[in-house]
């Protein structure tokens, strides 16, 4: 489970370690971030500034790597004029 550049979510207790100095972490449960998101995410919300060139094209290319996906996507769009949102 422990590897370089992997994000983990841990549940446990943090306490001062008088023997070694610093702190000690006792983990009761541990989850891989990517797996817990895939299993429990209700939606992915993104705020896109479409005033920036190629913003939509770049995010579309990034999301294409994860299609088809089961997590609903919400986009909040910042435009030159009034803003809007798209959910799907």
Automatic annotation (TrEMBL):
It comes from the Bacteria. This is Uncharacterized protein. It comes from Xanthomonas euvesicatoria.
